[in-house]
Write a structure and sequence with these properties.
The protein has 24 helices and 14 strands. It is α/β, with parallel strands linked by helices. It catalyses: 6-phospho-D-gluconate = 2-dehydro-3-deoxy-6-phospho-D-gluconate + H2O.
């Protein structure tokens, strides 16, 4: 084991002693009774539970076989989730053939950030993760189930499902994605049209043609953003059948993997001989594996928030120092857009997640001994699936990368580090992702231009007032202010400014995106402006220095002047109503900081939000 990985793991174990022990004790108590869970119900309870079960009624009524609770994020709006419409039919049939049963326990809301980017609905996005966690818990609260299958892929959906499922961590849980859509218009071509549109050089019709050619079919968006980073982490944590992440939807192999997941989760319930509850799979080692895999693949900055919340749900306490330290010793071995030109289909074809996991295991950067839900350890997780006729089998991932422009061995990486860095200074703490930022652009000292919304910046750009080097400050975008929407709408404009020769960077207490790219961006800055953080005292012209190499974010203002300044941010009353925002007031009121996971769910006995 790499000494830094070992040290960080030990530090997390020590930090989490109380919370982890409390969590495991609760799971032990909840899972202590023998026999199928449904047999503890009264006759009236049980009769309600199997009233509509059709052919499964006899098995649910009196049998001893396991029953799977399916939690699904299916809807027709998210292309990644639309293929799941028919999964329950397939899963029920597979469960019957394996001697068990399966029921759709419930559905969770699943919004698409791609649809809501730059729109009012985006202010519900981060909070939807906690809502999904609660919906998962409600779905499983019937206590009819011995195992869980979570059907989800995208940004907040997988983290939310895992947070919710961890409350039922005495059961085995397996995640079942749908896979990426086939390649359409390349990400590089799409980005070029977006930038030309931002500069007024392309029409709306040209932009829509490009977007429609890129997002063109069922399946996950093909860039390596938050959704596909989710899939890498689920593999690294051992919560998928091996190699499930990037198999295209609507293929025989995809269906075979869904059937295999059904059969496997029934094998590992407490009713059998190989009990693998979620609470034992998701431990400190699995969380470290997820952080390392995220760094090695140039994954999404959003997981600097989501991973903290997922870990906390398992009683594991991590922070941005852990992520920074692991990222600095993890080689970047995947280049997929926005860190390169390839999409996830290229990444999969060049060696995929199996190649990546094996490289990380051999380099001593991940814990290979995690008890994966598929029945083996992380070494088995690195196998890739294939069909031998109609039989599902696994084989070793390619011994060598099949495209060194996309996937490289750990001994010959694209970069010596993953590129997710914690920055801190007199402006607070934040996250910078440098894997797509040119080395010469990874630090800047320039005057601030302060805005209260991304639209204010875009208006300034259109009027030609954003000239010269600058650090664009967008504040009042944190969890407490307005739910911390992504500011991805800024990407083409900031890129256009950089391409015309300006030195530019972004500083914000908001999120950027899983697709954040080549412009230096210090994001998730905490304390946020709505909490009176230093970012609220910034004024136009202040000299800001962001140095991602040194890990610093500072402003140069005389101490007396700084002390005399008052807190400023946009009028937050405008964020309180419309598009359902009034229903999330309780979350804005008690949400924790970005570094604490941006969650309103974790409240200790002293009422403090962790």
């Amino acid at each position: 084991m790499h000494p830094v990985v070992a040290r960080v793991t030990e530090r997390i174990v020590e930090r989490s002693k109380r919370t982890r022990a409390d969590y495991l004790a609760r799971m032990e108590q909840l899972g202590s009774e023998s026999g199928p869970s449904r047999m503890r119900l009264s006759c009236g309870n049980l009769a309600h539970g199997f009233a509509a079960a059709g052919d499964d009624k006899p098995r649910l009524r009196g049998g001893q076989a396991g029953n799977i609770g399916i939690v699904t994020a299916y809807n027709d709006v998210i292309s990644a989730h639309q293929p799941m419409e028919h999964y329950p039919v397939l899963i029920r049939a597979a469960a019957r053939n394996a001697g068990g049963s399966a029921q759709v326990a419930g559905g969770v809301p699943a919004m698409c950030d791609g649809v809501t980017q730059g729109r009012t609905g985006m202010e519900l996005s981060l909070f939807s993760r906690d809502n999904i966690a609660m919906a998962t818990a409600v779905s499983l609260s019937h206590d009819m189930f011995d195992a869980v299958m979570c059907l989800g892929v995208c940004d907040k959906i997988v983290p939310g499902m895992l947070i919710g499922a961890l409350s039922f961590g005495y059961m085995p849980v397996i995640f079942v994605p749908a896979g990426p859509m086939p390649q359409g218009l390349t990400n590089k071509e799409k980005a070029a049209v977006r930038q030309r549109y931002a500069e007024g050089k392309a029409t709306r019709e040209e932009l829509l043609d490009a977007e429609a050619a890129s997002y063109h079919a069922p399946g996950t968006c093909t860039f390596y953003g938050t959704a596909n980073s989710n899939q890498t982490m689920m593999e690294a944590m051992g919560l998928h059948m091996p190699g499930t992440a990037f198999i295209n939807p609507g293929t025989p192999l995809r269906d075979a993997l869904t059937v295999a997941a059904t059969e496997q989760v029934l094998r590992v319930t407490k009713l059998g001989d190989d009990y693998r509850p979620l609470c034992r799979t998701v431990d400190e080692r699995a969380i470290v594996n997820a952080m390392v895999a995220l760094a090695a693949t140039g994954g999404s900055t959003n997981h600097a928030i989501h991973l903290v919340a997922m870990a906390r749900a398992a009683g594991v306490l991590i922070d941005w120092d852990d992520l920074d330290e692991l990222s600095r010793v993890t080689p970047l071995i995947v280049r997929a857009y926005p860190n390169g030109a390839a999409d996830v289909n290229h990444y999969h074809a060049a060696g995929g997640i199996g190649f990546v996991l094996r490289e990380l295991i051999d380099a001593g950067l991940v814990h290979a001994d995690v008890p994966c839900v598929h029945g083996g350890d992380l070494r088995q997780q690195s196998m890739e699936p294939y069909l031998d006729g109609t039989a599902l089998r696994w084989r070793d991932a390619p011994a060598r990368s099949l495209d060194l422009n996309v996937v490289r061995p750990a001994a010959d990486p694209f970069d010596h580090e993953g590129g997710l860095r914690r920055v801190q200074g007199n402006l607070g703490r934040g996250i910078v992702k440098i894997s797509a930022v040119a080395p010469e652009l990874r630090k800047i000292e320039a005057p601030a231009r302060v805005f209260e919304s991304q639209d204010d910046l875009l208006d300034a750009f259109k009027t030609g007032t954003l000239q010269g080097d600058l650090v664009a400050v967008i504040r009042g975008q944190g969890p407490r202010a307005n739910g911390m929407p992504e500011l991805h709408k800024l990407t083409p404009t900031l890129a256009a400014m950089q391409d015309r020769g300006q030195r530019v960077a972004l500083l914000t207490d908001g999120r950027m995106s899983g697709a954040s790219g080549k412009v230096l961006s210090a994001i998730h800055v905490t304390p946020e402006a709505a909490d009176g953080g230093p970012i609220s005292k910034l004024r136009d012209g202040d000299r800001i220095r962001i140095d991602s190499d040194a890990g610093t974010i500072d402003v140069d203002v005389p101490a007396a002047e700084w002390e005399a300044r008052t807190v400023q941010h946009g009028d937050l009353r405008a964020n309180r109503f419309g598009f359902g925002r009034e229903l999330f007031a309780m979350m804005r009121a008690q949400v924790g900081t970005a570094e604490a996971g941006g969650s309103a769910l974790f409240i200790d006995e002293d009422r403090s939000v962790r």
